[in-house]
Amino acid sequence: MTGCSKSFLDRPPLSQISADNFYQTSDDLRLATAALYAGTPWADWNYNCYLPVGDVLSGNMAVNFWGDAVQLNTFTITGLNGIMIANWKGMYKVIAYCNVTINAIIQKAPASIPDVDKNAAIAEARFIRGFAYYNLAVLWGAVPVIEDNSKLIVSPLVNRIKTEDVYKFAINDLTFAAGHLPTTDAAGRVTTWSAQGMLSKVYLTASGLNQSGGTRSQAYLDSARKYAGNVCKNSGLALVANYADIFKTQFNDNPESLFALQWAPGGGWLEGNMLQIYSPGGTEISANGSAGWFAIAPTVDMYNLYATRDSIRRKATFMIKGDYYPELNAAGGGYKFGGDAGLKKHVIGTNKDNNAPTMNLTSSTEHNALLRLADVYLIYAESILGNSSVTADGDALLYFNKVRERAGMDPAPMIDIDSLIIERRIELAAEGQYWIDLVRLSYYNAAKAISKLNGESRVTFSISDGVVTPKDPFGAVTPATIQSFTFPIPSSEVTANPKLLEDPVSYY
Question: What is the pLDDT of residues 134-147, one digit of tens each?
Answer without folding.
Answer: 999 999 999 999 99
